[in-house]
Amino acid sequence: MGDSVDVWGLRGARLPAAYAASGRRALRVTLVAAAGFYAFRYGLGRPVAATYALFTVVALGGLSRIPGTGRQRAAFMARLLPVCWALVAVGTCLSVRTWSAVAGMLVIGFALAFSAVGGPRWAGAAPGLQLLYILPSFPPYDPASLADRLIGTTTGVVLFVVAEALLFREPAPVPYRERAARAALVAERWAARLATAPAALTDADLREAQEASQGLRPLNVPEAERPAGPGVRDRALTHTGLAVRTLIGRLVQLPAVRGNDTAPDVTAVLRSVARLAGATAACLRADASPAAGQQELVEARARLSAVSAGPPSAGGRLAPAVLRCHAAVLEAADAALAMGAAADLAVRGRHATVELPPGRFWYATIRTPLLWWHRARGHAGRRSVFFQNAVRMALALTAVRLVAGVDTLPHGFWAMLATLTLTRTTLGETWSTIRLALAGTLAGALFSAGVLILVGADTTVYAVLLPVWMLGAFTVGPVRGVGWAQGLFTVLVAFVFAQLAQPTWRLAEVRMLDVLVGSVIGAVFGVLAWPRGAHDELRHAAADLLRRAAEIVVATSASVAGGAAASVPSGVPRHRSLERAVVLAESAYAQLQSEPTPFGGRGRGPQPPAVDWQATLIAGHHTLWGSTRLLEPPGTPLGAPAAESAGVLGERVAGRMLLVSAALDPGDDTPATTTVLIDPVLAGFTDEPPGAPRRYYATEAWLNSLMTDLTRIARPPDRPNDRP
């Protein structure tokens, strides 16, 4: 059953870790829910307030899965209090007419489900917020009781916030800022070493690089620590992690060139990179400004760029190997500059002390509501898994509310709760969940009927049993699965409603009927609305990402070849299109990780080989970053031989991207022959042009790195993803 731990700090009392974690959460929920329910029901004689106090705690503590420590959850739930008031008030007002209740369920149900675009905490809170809107949408239709409903809701939220903040404190995970700071220190050590003793990095160094980079990948970061929100600081912190990973990757691949006149300039840049990396770590840890290190690196980079792009030295034109070294060092410097600027923006927000380059940090001056709108608009389409999930859930809840209103389904609230808790993102998972839930509900209904028959109307017995059963239900249910959870919760609601109205054994029968109705409706919409979850959408999104990237590769290589006259301005539509494609692919990939392989892993049409989806996402990021670096500022034309070579290289990489795209998402008219995803030749596409400037070699390095990304997209399943 896993490792055992002390239970609630008591020496000698040990439980498996999973039960201990759910037990601590269950004890918080039980203490607060029981306190609010008993105080209003028996102390003040206000059953409506008692009901809302209890179900508010059940919604936020039992149904919601807000990530983070207790203090983090408490802070987030405190900010949700006005939202809870609004949901209860609107649900109460709209419930008096079936048509208004149905319309409200469609709009608000979609909005709450779609709020998952705001990050893991909003996604975790969405089910609980749905429950707070569902509860007042059913009988009694009594707007006059709104005051009691709001009092109960407020009491439940406030008490639970206090309990989360003070009871059973959990150790905080390593923050993302600290993870990025540690990776920056790795980059600092390497840059300093490469500046003084250029040599190939050891295997231990490469393992350290992989660990530092892997530690910043979203799937390896606890949900509560992922900078996934739409605000400036979260976006900048995400940008910081990507820049640190890029810098480490550039340092790993940095060629060592010595014995020429430009070595001091290369060394100066690497030392400045090291100092800026250290300043970035200090900024992330202690809020120190990296502005001085940023300015030092800007000046060192400018000197090396002038030497690399200037007239031949006294000893003759710089050798191609030296120019390649310069291009690699300058790319590392660009990554370091982006890292320092992003870290300062993440720490200080709009009061950043570092001068931000245009285009790359477009979000720095935009207000938070507009950033939320930008995020929502980016996902407002049928290819977004957030949009799909919101539509599926809103339609299912609306259908249940319509059935409950038209047919006067008794306790229709339970039917909607079943739809809310049992509908999954894939049809296969939904059906499996429903079968287990119905079996558990049947067992719970039979047990509840027996208890109601034996105990009758003695509310004292139910009052005594309720907290004990609640503690067991919220401890065992999350560990043993949906069948146990539904069975235990069926008994729990029977104990609650037996204290609010005259109990009868038919209450268990109604509960079974409602769960069956809600499950069937959820399954129907699971069949009709995107039954394969993120599986198909990830293939579509990854293929679209590569198609957009191919457009940028061709345009960028042509712009570099033509110089200032053909330069593409920052923020062009094709860049925004690729940014949106990356966002959609990342969200689909994140959802896919939580889904089982659909239909045994066999989909419709030709299946691509084993795919490293993260390599596809990295290729998109590298396309954006490389294009931005090469186009800002505009340069001079390369000259005929170098320009022709750059154009051929860009077209070759773009063509390979399109082939990989077609293999990932084949159309009806795609040839049935297998498309080779890996190009056997990564370099030497064309003869090296004589007298090519440093800008050509920077372009070549970028395109070769993209080819390396493409080779990693199709890899054997047992081969590790070894890219830093």
Question: Which descriptors apply to this entry?
Answer:
single chain; 724 residues; two-stranded antiparallel sheet; disordered N terminus
Read across the widest sheet, the strand sequence of neighbours is 1-2
Can you tell me the residue ranges where pLDDT is under 50 for at least 5 consecutive residues? Answer: 1-13, 564-573, 597-608, 673-686, 716-724
Sheet having the most strands: 2 strands, antiparallel
Structural class: mainly alpha
Strand content: under 5%
**Rg from alpha-carbon coordinates:** 30 Å
Instruction: Please count the beta strands (DSSP E, at least 2 residues each).
Output: 2
The share of residues in helices is 55-70%
Termini, distance in Å?
34 Å
Along the chain, the helix and strand elements come as: EEHHHHHHHHHHHHHHHHHHHHHHHH
Indicate the overall shape: elongated
Count of separate DSSP helical elements: 24
